[in-house]
Amino acid sequence: MEEDTIVALSSGALPAGIAVLRISGPGAAPAMAALAGGVPEPRRASLRTFRDASGGTIDCGLALFFPAPHSVTGEDLAEWHLHGGRAVVAAALGALTALPGLRLAEAGEFTRRAFDNGRIDLTEAEGLADLLAAETEGQRRQAVAQAGGALRALYEGWMRRLVRLRALLEAEFDFSDEGDVGDDVAAGVIEGVAALAGEMAVHLQSARRGEILREGFRVVIAGPPNAGKSSLLNALARRDAAIVSAVPGTTRDVIEVSLDLGGVPVRLADTAGLRATSDTVEAIGIERARRAMAEADLVIALLDGSDTSPATEATHGETATSPVLCVLGKADLLLPAAALPAHDLAVSSATGEGIERLVAILAARAAETVGDPAAVLPARLRHREIVADALGLLTDPALSRLPPELVAEALRRAGDRLGALTGRVGVEDLLDVIFSEFCIGK
Ligand SMILES: Nc1nc2c(c(=O)[nH]1)N(C=O)[C@@H](CNc1ccc(C(=O)N[C@@H](CCC(=O)O)C(=O)O)cc1)CN2
Ligand SMILES: Nc1nc2c(ncn2[C@@H]2O[C@H](COP(=O)(O)OP(=O)(O)OP(=O)(O)O)[C@@H](O)[C@H]2O)c(=O)[nH]1
Ligand SMILES: [Mg+2]
Q1: How many whole angstroms from 68 Cα to the centroid of ligand 1?
Q2: 116 in a domain, yes or no?
Q3: 345 has which bridge partners?
Q4: Which protein residue's CA is at the shortest distance from atom 16 of ligand 2?
Q5: 265 in ligand 2 pocket by Cβ < 6 Å?
Q6: Could you tell me if 190 and 130 lie in one domain?
Q7: Which residues of the sequence carry a binding annotation for (6S)-5-formyl-5,6,7,8-tetrahydrofolate (predicted)?
Q8: Residues 43-87: pLDDT tens digits?
Q9: Which among 350, 370, 390 is the end of a domain?
Q10: What is the pLDDT of residue 385?
Q11: Is 229 annotated as a binding residue?
């Protein structure tokens, strides 16, 4: 347990209806005794007058006390529910931090203590950070499952299986003098390892889904200059995010907006029109456009439906790797059907024609790409890398030819690697990074 007692405003920006201060550590009960007229009955709201050191009233509000270890942090934890005025909160924080051993908390410090005291593991802490950051329904569902221990249960289950398989092998070392029972055990262990490796590989295959849900399904609008790309971005975002003009080559930088399509976060990008150019700045923009297309989950290849001639330079299907949706813009000025290239749909940013259909198509593509948001998916690159490392150790083709001692050693190393997922092994340098993602008071 830590020595210091930490204090912070855990509720949001002031002024607010109510402000919640949290006090965690050995000084929480003495602080209640000194400033709130006594320590309330555990886990029961109690109306108190909060006073400063000289007995002056700060505010009247509700007080709560959660004795260790049954609190969120695992330490003695007190809460003050005050009126949410700036001066009220400033006076309360001032009175609390004037007490010996009490200081203001750093970002993520309550959660860090919950982790240090074994109340939550690293995947649950990450889930909590994601829950606070969640902006769409899909993100919330993924985060609430992870904060509730879904990934922890999966990874701890894998670690337990590795320990069991190792125990079988270790038992075999002890009996290796007693005939050939050992071969069956070894074959059983190799089978068990293969089954586990299969599940890990399936989990890894879903990594991209988890990342899309957390970070957004990336849609890039690309096409020749003046096709109406920026107008389409503005129509989909319902605001003037990008400059629109009749001059070809208007957009240079990649311009990104965030959309919530049926609960899936979508990052929609507008890019520079693709064409051969001698303008250095425009060329940099086109290079960025190509990179964005290569990294997209879906490219909207937009052609000008009133003039498809520039398409010969910058073709519809320029992107080889990302899935493409072929869209004709300026549907209000559409050329005769015979003059039009093959396309999935026509839209007009000017009249709104086809925009709802395009939104529905994007939402369906995003939803089908992420699948069930409550499924247990690796959500971060960190998860993907560690699982891939451990899987590499378990799928080493030499494994089945090694003596049992060395197989056991490989299983131990794979288990240690997985231990980094839940934060029990070799993650010291990572902890500061992960907990600093939180705000103060969490
Ligand atoms: N006022 C307030 N609301 C809050 C929080 C908080 O800290 N304070 N939380 C902060 O994130 C979340 C709730 N999370 C909590 C998780 C566990 C316990 C807790 O005391 N657990 C005990 C006993 C559980 C029980 O009564 O059954 C335990 O697990 O031992 C409390 C809050 C959201 N709402
Ligand atoms: N009639 C009509 N005009 C449109 C439509 N969409 C865009 N325009 C016009 O087409 C011109 C180019 O539009 P932008 O959205 O700037 O085109 P862009 O593809 O972003 O162009 P660059 O950034 O230069 O590559 C502007 O004059 C727009 O007003 C549309 O749906 N109908
Ligand atoms: Mg543009």
Answers
A1: 12
A2: no
A3: 327
A4: 244
A5: no
A6: yes
A7: 22, 79, 119, 442
A8: 999 999 999 999 999 999 999 999 999 999 999 999 999 999 999
A9: 370
A10: 95
A11: yes
Which pTM was predicted? 0.86
Mark whether 344 and 271 lie in a shared domain. yes
Q: 255 and 161, same structural domain?
A: no
- Residue 243 CB less than 6 A away from ligand 2: no
Does some domain include residue 117? no
Q: pLDDT, tens digit, for every residue of 138-158?
A: 999 999 999 999 999 999 999
Type of residue at 325:
L
Question: Is the shortest distance between the CB of 72 and ligand 1 below 6 Å?
Answer: yes
| DSSP secondary structure, 323-370, as one string | -EEEEEE-GGGPPPGGGPPP-SEE--TTT-TTHHHHHHHHHHHHHHHH
Q: Are residues 199 and 306 in the same domain?
A: no
Q: Whose CA is nearest to atom 20 of ligand 1?
A: 71
| Residue nearest atom 9 in ligand 1 by C-alpha distance | 72
Residues 309 and 230 in one domain: yes
Point out the domain boundary residue: 323, 344, 370: 370
Distance CA 333, CA 356 (A): 19
Residue 243's domain comprises 216-370
Write the CATH number for 139. 1.20.120.430
Residues 234 and 196 in one domain: no
In the chain, the number of structural domains is: 3
Residue 369 labeled ligand binder: no
Can you say whether the dihedral through the CA atoms of 210, 214, 217, 220 is positive or negative?
negative
* Count of residues making up the chain: 442
User: Are the beta carbons of 221 and 233 closer than 8 angstroms?
Assistant: yes
User: From ligand 3's centre to the CA of 233, what distance in Å?
Assistant: 9
b/e per residue, 249-266, with b = 16+ CB within 10 A? bbbbeebbbebebebbbb
